[in-house]
Design a protein that fits this description.
5 strands, CRAL/TRIO_N_dom_sf, CRAL-TRIO domain-containing protein, CRAL-TRIO_dom_sf, five-stranded mixed β-sheet, Helicase, Ruva Protein, domain 3
Length: 356
C-alpha cells in the first residue's frame, strides 16, 4: 500500500495462506497476479463477501486448476490449424473495442449470434482462456503503466441481436465458459451492458431482476436500443463497438459479422486484436522446449466444475436462470409475430384472389 495507509487485515490473512502454499502453487500465483498480488487477493475476497476462509478456498482451488491444466502456458499453445481459430472467432463472437474513460478494457460479446457450432467445446474454452490471459498479462500491464496505476477490471457490452429460443441449446457451452470466469477470474468485470435486446427481453428482465444476487444486479445494465448515448458516458466514440456506432438493424437475420470491413469489425478474425493475440501465441510457442512444444499440440481438455458443483452462487448461475426464464418468452413473442405476418399475408392473398 502507498504512503502510510494500512493494509487491509483480511489481505494479511490471505497473504499468510499464500506463504503456506507449496512452490508450484506459489509460482502460479506469481504468474496470475502479474505484479499486483494485493489487488488479486482483494478480488477473491470480494467474490466471497470478505469471508477469508471461503476466499482462501476459492484461491487455492483456482491455483490447483491453473497448475493441473497448465494455464500458465496457455498463451504458448496455439489452436491449430489456423482455420479452426478463425472458425471459433466467427462462432464465438468476442472482440476488444478499446478502453473506457477510466482506462478499463472494453469487450464486445455477440450473445445472440454466437453459435458455438464450428468446433468442440474444449476448443472454445481454450480460446476463451487465451483471451482472458492476454487481457491480464498484456492489456492490463500496458494500460496500468500508461495510467500510472493498476487497472485490473474491464467492461463488457453484450449484444442481444438475434437472440432466440435456439440459444438455449448453446447454453451449455456458454455456461462452461462463464463458469471458468466465475471461479478463476473473479471480479474482473465491473459492468455488463446489455444492448439491442428485444422488447420482450427488457420486459422479462424487470420481472426476474429481483431474484438476482445484489452483486449481479449492480453489475448488469439493460440499455435502450444500441445503448450509444449511455455508453458514451463511460467511453469515447472510438471505443464503442460497431453495433453501437451505426445502430441496431431491423431483423434478426442480419449477421454481426457483416458490419463493415473485417479489419474494423471487432468480431472478425482479421481484426487487429485477434491477429495480434494469435501472433503472440505463435511466438510464445516457438520459445517452448521441444518436449513442451510437442505437449502443446491439440486442444487443452480443461476441467470445469458444473454449476451444481460450485460452493457459492455465481453470476453465471444468475444469468443462466435469467435466460431460462426469458428465452421461452422470446420464442412466444416471435411465434406471435410470425403468426401476425402470416395472417396479414393470407388476408392480402385473399384480396388478390377476389380482385381476379
Amino acid at each position: 500500500m502507498a504512503g502510510n495507509q494500512k493494509k487491509n487485515p483480511l489481505v494479511k490473512e490471505m497473504e499468510q495462506v499464500i506463504d503456506n502454499l507449496d512452490g508450484t502453487l506459489k509460482r502460479s500465483f506469481q504468474n496470475m497476479h502479474g505484479g499486483y498480488p494485493e489487488a488479486t487477493l482483494v478480488r477473491f475476497l470480494k467474490a466471497r463477501d470478505d469471508n477469508v476462509l471461503k476466499a482462501s478456498k476459492m484461491l487455492i482451488d483456482c491455483l490447483n486448476w491453473r497448475v493441473k491444466n497448465d494455464i500458465d502456458n496457455v498463451l504458448a499453445r496455439p489452436i491449430k490449424p489456423k482455420e479452426t481459430w478463425d472458425a471459433i472467432r466467427e462462432s464465438q463472437l468476442v472482440g476488444f473495442c478499446g478502453y473506457c474513460k477510466k482506462g478499463r478494457p472494453v469487450f464486445a460479446i455477440g450473445v445472440g449470434q454466437s453459435s458455438y457450432d464450428k468446433a468442440a467445446v474444449d476448443k472454445y474454452v481454450h480460446s476463451h482462456i487465451q483471451i482472458n490471459e492476454y487481457r491480464d498479462t498484456v492489456l492490463v500491464p500496458e494500460i496500468s503503466k500508461k495510467r500510472g496505476r493498476y487497472v485490473g477490471t474491464c467492461l463488457k457490452i453484450l449484444d442481444m441481436t438475434g437472440l432466440k429460443l435456439s440459444a438455449f441449446s448453446r447454453l451449455k457451452t456458454s455456461t462452461v465458459i462463464a463458469t471458468v470466469d466465475d471461479l478463476n477470474y473473479p471480479e474482473k468485470t465491473d459492468i455488463y451492458f446489455i444492448v439491442n435486446a428485444p422488447l420482450v427481453f427488457s420486459t422479462c428482465w424487470k420481472a426476474v431482476k429481483p431474484m438476482l444476487q445484489e452483486r449481479t444486479k449492480r453489475k448488469v445494465q439493460v440499455l435502450k436500443g444500441n445503448g450509444r448515448e449511455e455508453l458514451l458516458q463511460f467511453m469515447d466514440y472510438d471505443s464503442l463497438p460497431m453495433f453501437s456506432k451505426i445502430g441496431a438493424r431491423e431483423g434478426s437475420s442480419n449477421s454481426l459479422m457483416d458490419y463493415g470491413d473485417p479489419t474494423s469489425n471487432v468480431f472478425s478474425p482479421e481484426h487487429q486484436f485477434h491477429v495480434e493475440v494469435y501472433r503472440h501465441i505463435k511466438e510464445n510457442s516457438r520459445s517452448l522446449s521441444r518436449a513442451n512444444r510437442l505437449n502443446s499440440e491439440g486442444s487443452m481438455h480443461i476441467q470445469v466444475p458444473s454449476l451444481d458443483e460450485q460452493d457459492e452462487p455465481t453470476e453465471t448461475g444468475d444469468f443462466v436462470n435469467v435466460l431460462e426464464r426469458i428465452l421461452p418468452s422470446l420464442q412466444s413473442a416471435q411465434n406471435a409475430q410470425d403468426q401476425q405476418r402470416a395472417d396479414q399475408l393470407a388476408t392480402k392473398m385473399e384480396g388478390i384472389q377476389v380482385s381476379t
